[in-house]
Amino acid sequence: MADPSIPTLADVLAAREVIAGRVHRTPLLSSMAAAVAVELSTGVRVADGRLYLKAEHLQKTGSFKSRGMTARVAVLSAAERERGIITVSAGNAAQGYAYAGAALGVPVTVVMPAAANPAKAAAAAGYGARVVLEGAVMTETFTALYRIRDEEGLTFCHPFDDPAVVAGHGSAGLELLEDLPDVDVVVVGIGGGGLISGIALAIKEQRPAVRVVGVEPEGSDAMTRALAAGQPVPIEPTSVADGLNAPFAGTIPLELVRRYVDSIVRIGDATILGGLQFALARMKQVVEPAGAAALAAVLFGRVPIRNGERVAVVLSGGNVDPGRLGELIARAAPLAG
Predict the structure, then answer these.
(1) Model pTM score
(2) 89 and 181 share a domain?
(3) How many domains does the chain have?
(4) Each residue's pLDDT expressed in tens, for the chain with a length of 337 residues
(5) Are both 181 and 302 inside the same structural domain?
(6) Strands of 28-31's sheet, edge to edge?
């Protein structure tokens, strides 16, 4: 018997209908400059002389999160909607739930680490959420979440380990495959695993031959460790890509990654920031470090690609503090050529 907690392609298709009109159908961009950089770095020529880019940094709230969070809030019961929800986040999930709550009339509380990105905390508050900053590490932040949830009777909506969230994120995979049906390789960053598991499900159930490759920061490799252990394990993430700094991989994403993701590569922060710098300087796209991870892995030759393959990467978020761009670019690794 199928596990009802693991979403299916039918769930992804249903979630897309639920969130339609509430989130963007983001464009699929392309870059000849990125294709040239790949060839200089690896000697490989990609199909069409261009790299394709799913522009989730142009999504509502500046990241893919509004897809899954809107899908999750939409299935709350009437009583849950009235009481309100609570979530935990380093930033982008906070904004996603805040946006979804505002769109669907549900009060939202987000608990974030005390050192959370101020711009992301302010954005979540700007969408109407109550923002609580507490905890030097994510375990302390989760403790604060559980305390507030129990005191106020709120419904906990998980930032990544939830079937509705994963199904909602999978809508990005549906769009990518519709816009680029002959894609050979899809590359996605990994934090807790909600995005890559949804995208891989949506793509592999329709095109099993497509290779889906995940990218994790070396300092935030919760999924790699979960795969090795056979279950989620806690970590203390340290990457500059705060949007990928999940304290553990989700149980649901772990199962879907086992089924559908072909491989995972790990890259350092300097490489991630090299992707951010390239996106800004050569593609005129502002992405945050987490949003640049998949691009960076391809540009620096960390993803195995064969000559003539059609390659798409997911630019998952653009919520970077403009005041930090100079500092981030100064830490970027140089590309070949």
Answers:
(1) 0.95
(2) no
(3) 2
(4) 456 689 999 999 999 999 999 999 999 999 999 999 999 999 999 999 999 999 999 999 999 999 999 999 999 999 999 999 999 987 889 999 999 999 999 999 999 999 888 888 899 999 999 999 999 887 889 899 999 999 999 999 999 999 999 999 999 999 999 999 999 999 999 999 999 999 999 999 999 999 999 999 999 999 999 999 999 999 999 999 999 999 999 999 999 999 999 999 999 999 999 999 999 999 999 999 999 999 999 999 999 999 999 999 999 999 998 999 999 999 999 987 5
(5) yes
(6) 28-31, 51-55, 311-315, 185-189, 211-217, 263-267
Instruction: Please classify residue 284 by burial: count the beta carbons closer than 10 Å to its beta carbon, then call 0-12 exposed, 13-18 middle and 19+ buried.
Output: exposed
Pair (304, 179) in one structural domain:
yes
Helix (H, G, I), strand (E, B) or coil at 186: strand
The verdict on 114 and 253 lying in the same domain is no
Question: 179 and 191: one domain?
Answer: yes
Q: Which of 82, 118, 128, 119 is nearest to 110 (CA)?
A: 128
Q: At which of 139, 156, 173 does a domain end?
A: 156
Say if 189 falls within a structural domain.
Answer: yes
**Helices 32-42 and 289-299 sit at what angle, rounded to 10 degrees?**
50
Region label for 122, one of left (φ > 0), alpha (ψ between -120 and 50) or beta (otherwise): alpha
Candidate list 54, 60, 65, 204, residue with the active-site label: 65
Where in the sequence is the domain holding 28, given as residue range(s)?
A: 9-63+162-330
CATH number of 261's domain: 3.40.50.1100
Whether 65 is catalytic is yes
Tell me if residue 316 is catalytic. Answer: yes
> Which of the listed residues 124, 156, 188 is the one where a domain comes to its end?
156
100 and 149 co-located in one domain: yes
Q: Which of 197, 220, 239, 316 is catalytic?
A: 316
Tell me the three-class secondary structure of 251-278, residue by residue. HHHHHHHHHHCCEEEEECHHHHHHHHHH
